Every structure is written in C-alpha cells, then in structure tokens.
Amino acid sequence: xxxxxxxxxxxxxxxxxxxxxxxxxxxxxxxxxxxxxxxxxxxxxxxxxxxxxxxxxxxxxxxxxxxxxxxxxxxxxxxxxxxxxxxxxxxxxxxxxxxxxxxxxxxxxxxxxxxxxxxxxxxxxxxxxxxxxxxxxxxxxxxxxxxxxxxxxxxxxxxxxxxxxxxxxxxxxxxxxxxxxxxxxxxxxxxxxxxxxxxxxxxxxxxxxxxxxxxxxx
Length: 218
What we know:
The chain is mainly α. The protein has a two-stranded antiparallel sheet. It is 68% helix and 4% strand. The chain has a domain at 86-203. InterPro entries: SPF27. Belongs to the SPF27 family. Residues 39-59 are annotated as: Disordered.
C-alpha cells in the first residue's frame, strides 16, 4: 500500500493488492513457498494495538482497596484467613487486675454491639434483601442485553463492511483482469504488426535488389 497527495494536500491511499480477489498464491504454489520462506526469515511484527484502539481502562481508580482485591484475584492469591480474635471473649489472665477486667468489659460490650448490628442487618436483609437482589439482577440482565445488542450490531456492521470491501475488490479485480487481457491483446497485435513490417521491409529490399539486378542485366 502506498500513499499519494491529491489537490487538497491530503494523503490518498493507493492499494496495490486486492486480498479478496488476488489468488496468485493459490495458482502458483512456488510463489506461496517463497512467501513463507520470506516470512519465516523476517522477525515477528510488534504486538501493538491499532492507534485508534483506546487504552485499557484503569478499574477502581478511586478505590485502592478494590484495586488491591482485583490484583489479588488476577494473581490467583488466596484470601488471608479471618482474624477471629476479635470475636473471642478472653478472660483476664490476672483476676485481681482491674485494668484487665476493664479491657475485657469493653471487649464484651463491643461484641454485644456487633451482634446487635448483625441482628439488625439480618432483619433488614430478610425484609428487603430479596427485592433488592431481584432489582439488581434485573439491572444486570438489562445491561447484558444492551451489551449483547451492541456486540451484535458491531458484528453485523463488520460483516457489512467486509462484504462491501469484497464486492468492491471483486468488481475492481474483474476490471483489472479485463484491462490486463486487453493490454496483452494490444501488445500481441503490436508485435504482430511489427513482425509484419519487418517482413514487408525485407520483401521490399528483396524486390529492390531484384529490380537492380534486372536493370543491370539489360
């Protein structure tokens, strides 16, 4: 593929191949072998995305905790074990130490408050959880349907573009083949005319020589 410049100083792309039409490699296996040897000799192209492909989005940019969790899942690391010490009610090691009893009492009150909060959350979940889950599933299904519809439209658009490209290349390839055939016929006709001219000139030279010989004999 080459580039040229039109009157508006905009680079115009000139395609020198028609992938949907050209079949030289199928017609001439030796060409295919040469191409494969050349490709094997060359290095692999860089695996870079097209410039129009947007960069990969950064997920959970505003939440370092979620980013860390995503990284953990991506690396297939196990969850750290739960810390169960805060759910325990250890007794003071020294029964005569008032400060240890105060700490144990604070821990017991915290555990009681935690259990009350769990009971409240369970009651709320039992009352509203099923409906909230249904709504959540409905929204997810709607999002999935929209994404699938967009994907299907993109596939159809891609198929349509490829179909138009194939039809255009087939039409242009047929025109090129017709022009090449016509060019070959014209070149063949020119060669035949040139050969006829050479033969005619040789015949004229022979007749002139014959005329000169006859004039000399008289």
